[in-house]
């Protein structure tokens, strides 16, 4: 064979003609990728559907006292003015209860809606006998109505959105129809605020140290490896840490007794919002550090060099150039970490979240409950109504998370725009 | 070392500039630089005359950029670089333990291979360096003056508040030079300043150097021999970390003494 033969048609038999085969492999992989995406979307859709399904639907209620018997001069209960309602309360409610309510706020000063609320809750006392999911309510309405009229002839069937303004603005109570999520929302927001206040500055400062100052030696590599490991430690272990350190050892500080706060009568024993926030802060600290390090590492050396070549100090370089250039990335990572913290349940159970708390947290030294804790607690109740309440609370939790993420994205985009034109 | 002694070192570098009678603005003495076991620059002895353009040429990996970065202590920013010998700035060794690297870089500016303006406005790009170094004069005047020195003023005077990234690559590089001269440095180090630019932008920057050398001592690293021939007064040829030949540019290109220099400039290797 001559050298020339390398270019002749004959020698191309060394290459098998497998183009069709390669194309079909390619197509198969394309299908696998698409199917995976569809599977993921299906699961997400199913999740959202189940929540929505439970958060809305018909409720069948039987009144302990017939609303018709409460009519005054032919005016039905729901159309009465304040005077009529006050008369109903006077006639039907025990004197003791009336005095108690009057002490809270005199009847004369209460609004019509408020009075109606009292009448319904204290006198009419509607009892939930059956609840239905959104799916049943939409597609099985006939069966529900038939069942209602035969089994409970004097029942009322109402369509209820378990997520309502009332649900959002009420503190927790023992009864499913009046309970609200405000206590848990306030607890979550307070806890996360403390988490952020602690984890954000400390995490970024540690990342700056590791990335910009620390020399590449054994000790620093050891620290780095351990930060990576800490990011993978199960969250309940952070709960144990929080219990041991913040609740027990630092009790005087976290319970507020060192600052003379226990005088308010609320004894929390260190199982406070502060302990919970700090525990979550330690939980997300490694994640924030690693993410901020990656953000700093993504900044090119040439930016640092151009600053240093002008006689800038290290700190001036970091503060004026490196941090502004990496801040959008740092922020994104922090939001992801905080989203994780918002959803944490296990460590807070260990730290001592209150499972039933009717008083909203008033400050960092209050007893606390958070949305996930509340959801967990409601799902474990036997009454079927609580399943709907839990679903409603999940909707609130998701909305809270999404709005925090949206806020972060908007802020990040604004920062990026500033970066471009600043 | 406390801050006070550092401050007095600042004046030491500055005093050296005024007191110096040496013909060299910068002088390398027995300068050796190594990365681990690899010696990038071997025992370099070289003086850079005041208000002249000196070019360093040589094939890739000859140590010319490494040497340049040693002249304002930028090598320290890269891990694992070991420097021996002295670099005298008007007679003061910039590697003296009492000399602050931050001050060295303030007096010996640097322009990099790729234009790297800050993501700030054109105005801020120039004002920033002066501000952090405690400039107390009129910033508008400084910005205008610096931009005029690099012949960029007429092109950007109406958009000083715009982002520096809105400029073309050649304009960005001239902005980077303006940023360096805004500090009124003694020496400008240029590390292949035109290798990322088109021929027209390159020509503009080359013609700038004639003006700039009236005020500054310029050391330029280039892999473009024609450029070295056009812009420099003296040229040094480095090969594998050795300074093979260092003389007037004309002499080096027309009558090289060393055979290796002749081979390189006639394009037989490199």
Descriptive notes:
The complex is a heterodimer of chains A (422) and B (270). With 422 residues, chain A is mostly helical. Helix content of chain A is 65%, strand content 5%. In chain B, α5 (139-149) packs across α7. The model of chain B is unreliable at 1-9 (pLDDT under 50). Chain B has 270 residues and is of the alpha/beta class. In chain B, the strands form 2 sheets. In chain B, strands 6-7-8-3-9-10 form a 6-stranded mixed β-sheet, sandwiched between helices. A 4-stranded antiparallel β-sheet of chain B has the order 2-1-4-5. The A-B interface holds A 215-216, 300-313, 316, 320-321, 324-325, 419-422 and B 72, 74, 77, 79, 102-103, 105-107, 109-110, 112, 114, 116-121, 124, 128-129, 132-133, 162-163, 165, 176, 179-180, 183.
Number of helices of chain A: 17
Provide the β-strand percentage band of chain B.
15-25%
Which term fits the overall shape of chain A?
extended
Envelope shape of chain B = globular
Just name the CATH architecture of chain B: 3-Layer(aba) Sandwich
% residues in beta strands of chain A: under 5%
Tell me the Rg of chain B in angstroms: 18 Å
Helix amount of chain B, in percent? 25-40%
Would you list the SSEs of chain A in sequence order as H and E? HEHHHEHHEHHHHHHHHHHH
Summed over residues and divided by their number, the pLDDT of chain A gives a mean of 85
> Uncertain spans of chain B, ≥5 residues at pLDDT below 50?
1-9
List keywords for this structure.
heterodimer; A: 422 residues; mainly alpha; MetI-like fold; 3-stranded antiparallel β-sheet; 3 strands; B: 270 residues; alpha/beta; Rossmann fold; 6-stranded mixed β-sheet; 11 helices; 10 strands; globular; disordered N terminus
């Amino acid at each position: 064979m001559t050298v020339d033969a390398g270019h002749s048609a004959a020698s191309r038999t060394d290459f098998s003609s497998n183009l069709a085969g390669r194309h079909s492999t390619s197509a198969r992989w394309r299908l696998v990728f698409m199917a995976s995406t569809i599977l993921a979307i299906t699961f997400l859709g199913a999740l959202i559907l189940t929540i929505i399904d439970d958060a809305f639907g018909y409720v069948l209620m039987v009144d302990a006292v017939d609303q018709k018997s409460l009519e005054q001069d032919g005016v039905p209960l729901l159309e009465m003015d304040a005077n009529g309602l006050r008369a109903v309360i006077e006639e039907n409610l025990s004197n003791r209860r009336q005095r108690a309510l009057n002490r809270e706020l005199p009847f004369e000063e209460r609004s019509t809606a408020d009075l109606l609320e009292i009448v319904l809750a204290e006198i009419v006392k509607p009892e939930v006998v059956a609840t239905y999911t959104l799916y049943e309510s939409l597609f099985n309405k006939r069966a529900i109505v038939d069942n209602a009229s035969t089994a409970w002839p004097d029942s009322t069937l109402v369509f209820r959105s378990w997520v309502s303004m009332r649900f959002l603005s009420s503190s927790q109570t023992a009864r499913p129809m009046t309970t609200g999520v405000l206590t848990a929302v306030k607890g979550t927001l307070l806890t996360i605020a403390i988490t952020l206040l602690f984890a954000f500055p400390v995490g970024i400062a540690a990342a700056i140290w590791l990335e910009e100052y620390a020399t590449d030696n054994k000790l620093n590599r050891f620290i780095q490896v351990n930060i990576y490991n800490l990011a993978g430690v199960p969250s309940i272990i952070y709960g144990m840490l929080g219990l041991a350190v913040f609740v027990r050892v630092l009790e005087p500080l976290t319970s507020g007794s060192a600052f003379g706060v226990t005088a308010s009568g609320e004894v929390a024993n260190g199982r406070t919002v502060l302990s919970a926030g700090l525990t979550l802060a330690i939980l997300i600290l490694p994640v924030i550090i690693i993410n901020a390090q990656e953000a700093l590492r993504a900044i090119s050396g040439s930016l640092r060099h151009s600053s240093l070549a002008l006689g800038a100090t290290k700190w001036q370089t970091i503060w004026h150039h490196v941090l502004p250039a990496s801040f959008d990335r740092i922020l994104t990572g922090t939001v992801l970490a905080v989203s994780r913290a918002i959803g944490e349940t296990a460590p807070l159970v260990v730290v001592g979240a209150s499972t039933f708390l009717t008083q909203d947290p008033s400050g960092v030294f209050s007893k606390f409950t958070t949305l996930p804790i509340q959801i967990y607690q409601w799902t474990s109740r036997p009454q079927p109504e609580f399943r709907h309440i839990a679903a409603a609370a999940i909707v609130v939790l998701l909305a809270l998370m999404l709005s925090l993420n949206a806020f972060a994205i908007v802020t990040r985009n604004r920062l990026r725009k500033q970066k471009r034109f600043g | 070392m406390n801050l006070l002694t550092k401050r007095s070192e600042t004046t030491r570098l500055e005093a050296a500039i005024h007191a110096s009678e040496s013909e060299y603005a910068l002088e390398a003495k027995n300068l050796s630089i190594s990365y681990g076991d690899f010696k990038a620059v071997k025992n370099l002895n070289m003086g850079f005359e005041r208000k002249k353009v000196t070019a360093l040429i040589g094939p890739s990996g000859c140590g010319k950029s490494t040497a340049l970065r040693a002249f304002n202590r930028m090598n320290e920013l890269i891990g694992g670089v070991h420097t021996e010998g002295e670099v005298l700035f008007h007679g003061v060794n910039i590697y003296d333990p009492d000399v602050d690297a931050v001050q060295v870089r303030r007096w010996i500016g640097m322009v990099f291979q790729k234009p790297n303006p800050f993501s700030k406005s054109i105005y801020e790009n120039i004002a920033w360096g002066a501000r952090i170094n405690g400039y107390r004069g009129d910033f508008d005047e400084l910005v205008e003056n610096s931009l005029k020195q690099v012949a960029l003023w007429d092109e950007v005077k109406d958009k000083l508040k715009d982002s520096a990234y809105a400029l073309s690559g050649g304009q960005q590089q001239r902005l980077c030079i303006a940023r360096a001269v805004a500090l009124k440095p003694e020496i400008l180090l240029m590390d292949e300043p035109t290798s990322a630019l088109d021929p027209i932008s390159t020509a503009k920057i080359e013609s700038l150097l004639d003006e700039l050398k009236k005020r500054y001592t310029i050391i330029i690293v280039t892999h473009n021999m024609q450029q070295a021939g056009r812009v420099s007064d003296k040229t040094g040829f480095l090969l594998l970390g050795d300074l093979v030949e260092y003389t007037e540019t004309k002499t080096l290109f027309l009558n090289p003494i060393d055979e290796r220099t002749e081979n390189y400039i006639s394009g037989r290797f490199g």
